[in-house]
Amino acid sequence: MNEYYVETMKTKKIYDDFIYHMLSHSDFFSVVYYRLRKESPLNKYLKEYKKALRPYILHAENAHKWPNMETWDKRSVYRLAFYYADMKCYDILTRVNDIFEWDYPRAPMDLCFYKDGYCWFALTAHEYDAFVYTNNEKDIQELRELGVTVGFSEDNARLFHYDLEKEMNHYRTKILNKKNSSK
Q: How are beta strands 28-35 and 118-124 bridged, if at all?
Protein backbone atom coordinates (compact mmCIF):
# COMPACT_ATOMS: atom_id res chain seq x y z
CA MET A 1 0.00 0.00 0.00
CA ASN A 2 1.29 3.48 -0.83
CA GLU A 3 1.42 6.15 1.84
CA TYR A 4 0.78 9.81 0.98
CA TYR A 5 1.20 12.67 3.41
CA VAL A 6 -1.38 15.42 3.61
CA GLU A 7 0.39 18.74 3.95
CA THR A 8 -2.35 21.32 4.10
CA MET A 9 -5.93 22.22 3.52
CA LYS A 10 -5.53 25.96 2.98
CA THR A 11 -9.15 27.00 3.51
CA LYS A 12 -12.20 25.99 5.50
CA LYS A 13 -13.98 25.17 2.23
CA ILE A 14 -11.24 22.70 1.24
CA TYR A 15 -11.50 21.09 4.69
CA ASP A 16 -15.31 20.88 4.42
CA ASP A 17 -15.08 19.36 0.92
CA PHE A 18 -12.50 16.88 2.23
CA ILE A 19 -14.87 15.75 5.01
CA TYR A 20 -17.70 15.37 2.49
CA HIS A 21 -15.44 13.28 0.25
CA MET A 22 -14.21 11.08 3.11
CA LEU A 23 -17.74 10.43 4.39
CA SER A 24 -18.79 9.53 0.84
CA HIS A 25 -15.89 7.12 0.28
CA SER A 26 -15.49 5.50 3.72
CA ASP A 27 -17.32 2.80 5.65
CA PHE A 28 -16.70 4.27 9.11
CA PHE A 29 -14.54 6.75 11.01
CA SER A 30 -13.00 7.00 14.46
CA VAL A 31 -12.06 9.63 17.03
CA VAL A 32 -10.41 9.39 20.44
CA TYR A 33 -11.93 10.87 23.59
CA TYR A 34 -9.27 11.81 26.13
CA ARG A 35 -9.54 12.08 29.91
CA LEU A 36 -6.63 12.82 32.21
CA ARG A 37 -7.64 10.13 34.71
CA LYS A 38 -10.31 7.44 35.01
CA GLU A 39 -12.22 9.61 37.50
CA SER A 40 -11.99 12.75 35.36
CA PRO A 41 -15.14 13.75 33.47
CA LEU A 42 -15.06 14.55 29.77
CA ASN A 43 -14.76 18.26 29.16
CA LYS A 44 -17.77 20.13 27.75
CA TYR A 45 -16.48 20.15 24.16
CA LEU A 46 -15.92 16.40 24.08
CA LYS A 47 -19.33 15.79 25.67
CA GLU A 48 -20.95 17.84 22.89
CA TYR A 49 -19.23 15.80 20.18
CA LYS A 50 -20.01 12.51 21.89
CA LYS A 51 -23.69 13.41 22.26
CA ALA A 52 -23.99 14.60 18.66
CA LEU A 53 -22.31 11.46 17.29
CA ARG A 54 -24.15 9.00 19.57
CA PRO A 55 -26.74 7.94 16.92
CA TYR A 56 -23.91 6.75 14.64
CA ILE A 57 -21.83 4.75 17.14
CA LEU A 58 -20.59 1.36 16.03
CA HIS A 59 -18.20 0.45 18.80
CA ALA A 60 -16.03 2.06 21.48
CA GLU A 61 -13.22 0.75 23.65
CA ASN A 62 -10.41 2.04 25.80
CA ALA A 63 -7.18 1.88 23.82
CA HIS A 64 -3.56 2.92 23.91
CA LYS A 65 -3.05 2.35 20.19
CA TRP A 66 -4.88 3.66 17.14
CA PRO A 67 -3.80 4.53 13.57
CA ASN A 68 -0.27 5.99 13.58
CA MET A 69 -0.35 6.52 17.35
CA GLU A 70 0.62 4.56 20.42
CA THR A 71 0.76 6.02 23.90
CA TRP A 72 2.64 4.66 26.87
CA ASP A 73 0.63 6.81 29.27
CA LYS A 74 -1.26 4.26 31.37
CA ARG A 75 -2.88 6.79 33.74
CA SER A 76 -4.90 8.73 31.18
CA VAL A 77 -7.96 7.27 29.47
CA TYR A 78 -8.14 7.14 25.68
CA ARG A 79 -11.55 6.01 24.40
CA LEU A 80 -11.39 4.99 20.74
CA ALA A 81 -14.87 5.34 19.23
CA PHE A 82 -15.99 4.16 15.78
CA TYR A 83 -18.95 5.68 13.92
CA TYR A 84 -20.83 4.99 10.67
CA ALA A 85 -19.60 7.24 7.87
CA ASP A 86 -23.03 8.76 7.47
CA MET A 87 -23.55 12.05 5.65
CA LYS A 88 -25.61 13.18 8.66
CA CYS A 89 -22.26 13.47 10.49
CA TYR A 90 -21.03 16.13 8.07
CA ASP A 91 -22.20 19.13 10.16
CA ILE A 92 -20.63 17.62 13.27
CA LEU A 93 -17.27 16.88 11.61
CA THR A 94 -17.10 20.35 10.07
CA ARG A 95 -17.42 22.18 13.40
CA VAL A 96 -13.65 22.59 13.36
CA ASN A 97 -11.92 24.69 10.69
CA ASP A 98 -8.98 22.46 9.83
CA ILE A 99 -7.99 18.79 9.99
CA PHE A 100 -5.32 19.52 12.60
CA GLU A 101 -7.91 20.95 15.03
CA TRP A 102 -8.96 17.38 15.87
CA ASP A 103 -7.13 17.54 19.18
CA TYR A 104 -7.84 17.88 22.87
CA PRO A 105 -9.26 20.01 24.50
CA ARG A 106 -11.54 21.53 21.82
CA ALA A 107 -12.41 18.33 19.95
CA PRO A 108 -11.88 14.59 20.15
CA MET A 109 -8.43 13.53 18.98
CA ASP A 110 -7.23 12.07 15.70
CA LEU A 111 -10.13 11.77 13.27
CA CYS A 112 -9.47 8.73 11.02
CA PHE A 113 -11.44 7.19 8.13
CA TYR A 114 -11.68 3.50 7.19
CA LYS A 115 -12.73 1.47 4.19
CA ASP A 116 -12.51 -2.25 3.51
CA GLY A 117 -11.34 -2.88 7.10
CA TYR A 118 -8.27 -0.65 7.08
CA CYS A 119 -7.56 2.95 7.94
CA TRP A 120 -7.13 4.85 4.69
CA PHE A 121 -6.85 8.30 6.30
CA ALA A 122 -4.89 8.52 9.56
CA LEU A 123 -4.42 11.69 11.58
CA THR A 124 -2.16 12.42 14.54
CA ALA A 125 -3.21 16.02 15.07
CA HIS A 126 -0.78 17.01 17.83
CA GLU A 127 2.13 15.93 15.58
CA TYR A 128 0.59 17.61 12.50
CA ASP A 129 0.77 14.24 10.73
CA ALA A 130 -1.92 13.18 8.29
CA PHE A 131 -1.63 10.31 5.82
CA VAL A 132 -3.70 8.67 3.09
CA TYR A 133 -3.12 4.98 2.35
CA THR A 134 -4.14 3.75 -1.09
CA ASN A 135 -2.90 2.01 -4.20
CA ASN A 136 -5.49 3.85 -6.27
CA GLU A 137 -4.05 6.96 -7.93
CA LYS A 138 -7.64 8.10 -8.55
CA ASP A 139 -8.11 8.56 -4.78
CA ILE A 140 -5.13 10.92 -4.66
CA GLN A 141 -6.18 12.78 -7.79
CA GLU A 142 -9.67 13.36 -6.35
CA LEU A 143 -8.17 14.81 -3.15
CA ARG A 144 -5.88 17.09 -5.15
CA GLU A 145 -8.86 18.28 -7.19
CA LEU A 146 -10.52 19.30 -3.92
CA GLY A 147 -7.47 21.45 -3.15
CA VAL A 148 -5.85 19.12 -0.60
CA THR A 149 -2.04 19.23 -0.81
CA VAL A 150 -0.96 15.58 -0.99
CA GLY A 151 2.56 14.20 -1.55
CA PHE A 152 3.97 10.71 -1.96
CA SER A 153 5.61 9.34 1.19
CA GLU A 154 6.50 5.64 0.75
CA ASP A 155 5.68 2.26 -0.77
CA ASN A 156 4.53 -0.70 1.33
CA ALA A 157 3.40 1.36 4.29
CA ARG A 158 2.16 -0.41 7.41
CA LEU A 159 -1.64 -0.28 7.66
CA PHE A 160 -3.89 -0.17 10.68
CA HIS A 161 -6.48 -2.93 10.30
CA TYR A 162 -9.46 -3.10 12.57
CA ASP A 163 -11.79 -6.10 12.62
CA LEU A 164 -14.90 -4.07 13.20
CA GLU A 165 -17.12 -6.92 12.00
CA LYS A 166 -15.92 -9.04 14.92
CA GLU A 167 -16.48 -6.15 17.31
CA MET A 168 -19.86 -5.37 15.75
CA ASN A 169 -21.04 -8.96 16.19
CA HIS A 170 -20.05 -8.74 19.86
CA TYR A 171 -21.79 -5.36 20.14
CA ARG A 172 -24.98 -6.63 18.42
CA THR A 173 -25.06 -9.70 20.69
CA LYS A 174 -24.75 -7.45 23.73
CA ILE A 175 -27.62 -5.23 22.54
CA LEU A 176 -29.85 -8.23 21.72
CA ASN A 177 -29.13 -9.80 25.10
CA LYS A 178 -29.97 -6.52 26.81
CA LYS A 179 -33.26 -6.19 24.87
CA ASN A 180 -34.23 -9.84 25.55
CA SER A 181 -33.52 -9.53 29.27
CA SER A 182 -35.75 -6.45 29.56
CA LYS A 183 -38.79 -8.31 28.13
A: unpaired
